[in-house]
Amino acid sequence: MAALTTNVIPVAGLRIDDKYVVASAGGDTAETGGGTDLNVKTAGTAVTVTIATPETFDGLALADRTYATVATGEQRIPLTSRYRDPTTGLAAITYSAVTGVTVCVTRTIT
């Protein structure tokens, strides 16, 4: 898994079109927390993005969260603290395919 860099967006704004990287076939990890988003850009391939949910409720594992993308477009997915793995402190993200998929993590300063 590749560790994605979190791009902090200051009050003055930030250009992010040049911050995207190719999604890793083995998945990626990212920081989580308020104002943190995974931005997914697809070019010709609809994919399912899965974010591991390490929580349990009454001893039962919660299902991982999945997001379906369009074949060509952009989607923003919030990376809340719910996805933070207690061991690594990061979210674990996988993709059903990576051809034509680029990603970028942003955090907005509030």
Topology overview:
Layout (H helix, E strand, L loop, with lengths): L1 E2 L2 E4 L11 E2 L5 E3 L5 E8 L4 E4 L4 E2 L2 E2 L3 E4 L3 E7 L12 E5 L5 E8 L2
Parallel strand pairs: 1-4, 2-12
Antiparallel strand pairs: 3-12, 4-11, 5-10, 5-12, 6-9, 6-11, 7-8
List keywords for this structure.
110 residues, mainly beta, five-stranded mixed beta sheet, 12 strands, 46% strand, globular
Mean pLDDT: 96
Count of alpha and pi helical runs: 0
Number of strands: 12
Low-confidence stretches: none
Total domain units: 1
Largest sheet: 5 strands, mixed
Sequence of strands across the biggest β-sheet:
1-4-11-6-9
Instruction: Evaluate the radius of gyration.
Output: 14 Å
What order do the helices and strands follow? Answer: EEEEEEEEEEEE
Termini separation comes to: 29 Å
Find the structural class using helix and strand composition: mainly beta
Based on Cα principal axes, name the global outline: globular
Q: Strand share of the residues? A: over 45%
Helix share bin? under 10%
Describe this entry's structure for a reader.
This protein is mainly β and 110 residues long. It has one domain. It contains no helices and 12 strands. It has strands at 2-3, 6-9, 21-22, 28-30, 36-43, 48-51, 56-57, 60-61, 65-68, 72-78, 91-95, 101-108. A 5-stranded mixed beta sheet has the order 1-4-11-6-9, with no helix packed on it. Strands 2, 3, 5, 10 and 12 form a 5-stranded mixed beta sheet that branches. The radius of gyration is 14 Å and the shape is globular.
